[in-house]
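Holo model, MRU. Inputs:
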Amino acid sequence: MNVTVRGKNRPYRTVTFDAPRNHIRLIEQRLLPHTFKIVAPRTFRETATAIHNMTVRGAGAIGATAAYGLAQGARAFRGSNRRKFSSHVETVYTVLKAARPTAVDPVNAMNEIRRVMAQGKSVAEQQAIALAAAEEFANADVQHCARIGWHGAKLIRNGMKILTHCNAGWLAFVDVGSATAPMYAAQAAGKKFHVFCDETRPRSQGATLTAWELAQQGVAHEIIADNAAGHLMQRGEIDLVIVGSDRTLGRTGEVANKIGTYAKAVLAKRHEIPFYVAIPLSTIDWNLRRGRDIPIEERHENEVLGAWGVTPSPKSKVHGLKSGKRVYVRVANPTSGARNPGFDVTPAELITGIITPVGIFQPTELWPRRRELGFTG
Ligand code: MRU
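Output:
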């Protein structure tokens, strides 16, 4: 998407690959919206760390980063012994896969890359295939999100108030985003609407990332406390909910997404508000048979016990390119601990529809329509 950084408006992708240097280039999302910075992990282990510590986050973005990370690791191998190379690639895959457990996009992306790499007859050929396949995954992610926008825009009518949770915007993908794609497409079609961004504690991806994205694109929006949605729904102030997903079960239509999504789906059902989930095909898990089996990431308690922000600065600007110091402050009682599950699972019966690049489906239609949706098993 086009963003204004240090006074210059230009397009960025969340994740790109610098082939001559074998570096991945990432927008450092932990610093947004206060500082815009590109970082460049130089090895697959550094890439895994960037996924783990959430320099890059969001299912599609970590999918593309893992894809490039696999290519990066494969390309760093020296020699021509195919057995040693395979064992090295297995290590790269295992390290990247372990970086974050809930989103299925990294696993789907890396499995596909390994499948096509097997066609290469030499180490050099497989290295070249790995990079081409990673580029293909990243480009497909952009195309999928654009198609999600095309299909989802028809759900948005003039004057609507839309709730979204966490960040399923372009920062969570390579570009465009999933939940935001229908919004950007509706905006391009001249529709006027208003977005409520759940702040999304504990890491505040809604307040920091989604709000920054929407501000950059000129979409009318307000941040709300996570607990405010029920009140606004009860007063008729929310017409539509669109969220993303980190893993959607193709067999059941259950949706894993950022913690708090399930509560919003229950509230939407109570108030008869349509609740949609937007996903590229790489977010579908065709193997798992029940939502209870989705690995839910448990994160550090400090995320719940405190918060990050920047200190005020006389020089600070709205789009935050100059600001004070980034600090963590303890909020909670000093002697208390915390539980911090990062994701939850929304059952199919609470979901009105799943917006995919090939159309909008009811959650229970995914399995019967699996061939259209890319199932190859
Ligand atoms: O912990 P995060 O910030 O990686 O979680 C991201 C979300 O839950 C998004 O809503 C999700 O990835 C769906 S859109 C890719």
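The mean pLDDT is 96. The domain at 154-296+341-365 is CATH 3.40.50.10470 (Rossmann fold).
Archived with the compound record.
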